């Protein structure tokens, strides 16, 4: 038992520390993002951004968790919407109502012609780089200065 603990401790302390840790968003930055016109759910991009941000924020998704929502294997509590406040539940339900059933959760935005016929999303998933860059795109669109930060 003691040898096993020493081995685990040695392994822990010998981990690669060269990777830069991520910086958290400040509360005012989160509020700025949620209040941004770029996060409004009346556009496809805004709806996708909003739902992605809500799920990563409220469910504490990290390291690809947003890419594999159905594989998370855990339950998270999302608070009920409050009048005159943010509405994560309504945003998520709106997103679900606009996407095809039996597909991965986050989907690509459809062509203009199909959008005109109320088919907002196609049945192919967002690409890996789309997920990887989602927060960077949200921050850039909301005009938050992230220079020198690892977000």
Automatic annotation (TrEMBL):
<protein>
    <submittedName>
        <fullName>6776_t:CDS:1</fullName>
    </submittedName>
</protein>
